[in-house]
Amino acid sequence: MKNVSIDTITQAFVDYCSDDTDARTMFVLQKMVEHLHAFAKETQLTHAEWARGLKFLTDAGKISDDERNEFVLISDVTGLSSLVDMIGSQHEGTSSSVLGPFHSVGAPLLPVGADLKKDNEGATVVVEGFVKDTDGNAISGATIELWQTAENGLYYSQDGAQNDFNLCCSMHSNLEGRYAFTTVKPAPYMVPDDGPVGELFRATGRTPWRPSHLHFIVQKTGYKSLVTEVFANEDPYLDADAVFGVREDLIMDYVEHSDLSALPKDLEVGDKVTLPYFKVDFDFVLVAENTITPEREDT
After folding, report:
1. Measured distance CA(237)–CA(262) in Å, rounded
2. In the chain, how long is the greatest CA-to-CA distance?
């Protein structure tokens, strides 16, 4: 096209693409470019603003490495990660939430009732629940991965003072679909704000804080994998989560106890817990793979 104009450049992009392009790839790219071009026209984007945006992305690339991906963080803090999660989990199961950057593959496989607290500072928290299907039937042998921050608000991979895989594990639900472990209450923490994302927070007057939460991945053959977070009720950041991860069904209560007889009988630590301790009950509902989900538009 020799006479590209404001009105024709978007269609020119489509026309320049090969007819052999995968249909879904072409659909997604076309819609992305349409919205980018519409954004530039609606805002009357200036050269200086465009250059500042490119510098923001360039800076994100410079600060990213094997341990930190600023582009993932940008997706998180703009709500895109959570939006994609919600689009992909429109079903009757437990809500999904963001994976976050601190999931570590290879955490040790521990039995139901395992102790993660060990010598970590903080009150003992007893977490237990069941993995079920959407009809309420127990799902045994589900693989549950857990990871969380210590009381100082840091994951082990951020904190050289913590042992590898501290407060992380894998576990298989038992014949009743049950899981259980002892741990400490995770702390609220700030997402990294020393790079471009921090500039974004300061420019918009937003908080970089996240409410305290436990990360879970729950998987079982024949069911859709669940990646989610479970949040503490009454946390001060529930209504201002920096990455928009909170869902109503993912909020749990920490119930304070001093009665040792109320402890589950299969805990690795027995009744050797600090008092008072806190009890958390949370069930996961997995959706069968063959469950019908809303159709997406591919053309």
Report:
1. 30
2. 81
Amino acid at 269: V
Retrieve residue 48's tokens. Answer: 């200086």
pLDDT tens, the chain, 299 aa long: 678 999 999 999 999 998 888 999 999 999 999 999 999 999 999 999 999 999 999 999 999 988 789 999 999 999 999 999 888 877 789 999 999 878 888 999 999 999 999 999 999 999 999 999 999 999 999 999 999 999 999 999 889 999 999 999 999 999 999 999 999 999 999 999 999 999 999 999 999 999 999 999 999 999 999 999 999 998 999 999 999 999 999 999 999 999 999 999 999 999 999 899 999 999 999 999 986 554 444 43
112 with 175: CB under 8 angstroms?
Answer: no
Q: How far, CA to CA in Å, does 78 sit from each of 130, 160, 201, 206?
A: 33, 30, 10, 11
C-alpha angle 79-56-66 in degrees, rounded to nearest 5:
75
- Tell me the pTM: 0.87
Which neighbouring-strand residues pair with 183? 125
125 Cβ contact partners less than 8 Å away, ≥ 6 residues apart: 117, 182, 183, 184, 185, 254, 277, 278, 279, 280
Q: The tokens 């039995």 sit on which residue?
A: 111
